Amino acid sequence: MRTLLFRRRGLLVVVYAVAIVGSAFALVPVLWMISTALKGDNAVFSVPPQLVPASPKVSNFHQATTLIPFWHYLRNSLLVAGLGALGTVFSAALVAYPLARLKAPGMKVIFALVVATLLLPQQVLLISQFLIFKRLGWYGTYLPLIVPSWLGGGGFNVFLLRQFFLTLPPELDQAALADGAGHFRIFFRIILPQSVPALLAVGLLDFASKWNDFLGPLIYLNRTSTYTLPLGLASFRDLYNTAWNYLMAGTILAVVPCVVLFFLGQRLLVRGLAVRAKG
Amino acid sequence: MKVSRRERRAAYLSVSPWVLGFLAFTAGPLIMSLVVSFTDYNVLHPGATRWIGAANYTEAFRDPVLLHSFRITLLYVGLAVPADLIVGLILALVLNVRARGGGAFRTAMFLPVMIAGTGGASVAVALLWLWLFQPRFGLLNYLLSKVGVPPQLWVYSPRLVVPSLALMSLWGVGRSMLIYLAALQGLPRDVLAAAQVDGAGAWRRFWRVTIPLLTPAILFNLVLDLIGGFQTFTQAYIVTQGGPGNSSLFYMLYLYRNAFSYFRMGYASALAWLLFVFTLLVTILIFWSARRWVFYEGTAARP
Description:
The complex is a heterodimer.
Chain A (H helix, E strand, L loop, with lengths): L1 H36 L21 H9 L2 H32 L5 H13 L6 H10 L7 H8 L4 H12 L4 H8 L4 H12 L1 H17 L2 H6 L8 H11 L4 H34 L2
Helix pairs in contact in A: 1-13, 2-13, 3-6, 3-7, 3-10, 4-7, 8-9, 10-13, 12-13
Chain B lengths: L1 H35 L18 H8 L1 H33 L5 H15 L6 H11 L5 H8 L14 H10 L3 H12 L3 H9 L4 H29 L3 H7 L10 H10 L4 H29 L10
Helix pairs in contact in B: 2-13, 3-7, 3-8, 3-10, 4-8, 5-11, 8-10, 9-10, 10-13, 12-13
């Protein structure tokens, strides 16, 4: 019994040591970012660095939003990521529904294609998609960043939602069918309401990836007035490449919406990823 | 019979947006990029496009810059992927131990993923790390000086730039950690308990039971990391612009430049297809080898 206790204690020491090192590696850069964002113009370049700013300047955050049209970029990002994520959730659910719960010839082929897109590096499609969107006259608009989400939803999300729909009891549909409900009525009235956690997890992940997307906006957006936040931050850096305090303040403001969303949805995410990992 | 026809109609109607999107934005562009890769398509003079056969491909195989960018991309993947797989697993195992403060540690380690998004590096992360790497005023050299390590040039050094970017990518290890964690929490308790009853020691249980049961999650992370790693772009574009010299000219950055700086869409499409075929071969190789090392519940247990 004593050796077991000692073992348990030895294990705990190792566990805490690793957890502390891991957390420090994750947290120290974030603290450094916050500390820098609060420094005066000279304090940024003090050697050795001030870990805690001697006289914190909260006004840097306001300054950062005026050096670039921050709120404008934020609005653009909300528009692109919001409409995109909404489209992803809806269209992924729409295709996942028959794959999980309806019988029709060809559904297996569709599912195989969904899985195949999951393994296809999207970058292969980059250039020809660009040429197509340019031909359509969509270059310089948000359409290339939003429309594909409404017609597809991404292999991962379809896969995830299909797995989730499979776990819902089949009696749900049968009872509704017996009552004379159509399949789309079942989809909207029964399947979707029963799947809110999974839909939110998909929406959250897709919103985050669109919020942070850089290559897409970089290729399709040509006017600064249409820039999303990642492009705005990149241009901020090109304009003021040594103003690290303002840059870090702007960066913090840009990541806050996503971090808040993740905090709120952490539980959902663990559940969502659990289904994914089984694939 | 009437019901099943209704069911079929509903199914086809329901998948039709996806099918349309698949044809327009995936299958179509995939074929089109193959066609373009056999031409000298230039966005500035689309009318003058000529069919040039395999010339783009023969050029690619002789292009020393491409070979270089392929090599450093492989080097990056070789550093970043194993680090992510191993560190992510260690952190997940640690967090899986029920101990006080576990939730706080998990949130802390996942914070970088909230900042970076699940796609790996973002502009925000790139800017933050550029500042951490700053040789004179950055935090990294300051912390190292405390333990007697001389200051490094990090991303400003041709020798260190790729390892530095791999270190930066390790900051997002929370993503793979979370997948391992989810898999660990889904492990069948009866199997673990049975091993304990059989008298297997903790170390042996770990290697013979826990790790085999985790191999599906390891495979999942490996494939995801590899596909993402070969497409590394934002980090290099923001942090180094491919420099110093060409020492961080990742494959995707070189492809991007050919397409959108030199407007050589044909050549860039050939590069995209070469990367695609390479990624596909690696993925097939992994899935083929997975039969030997990935353990699926319900399949016959191996010794």
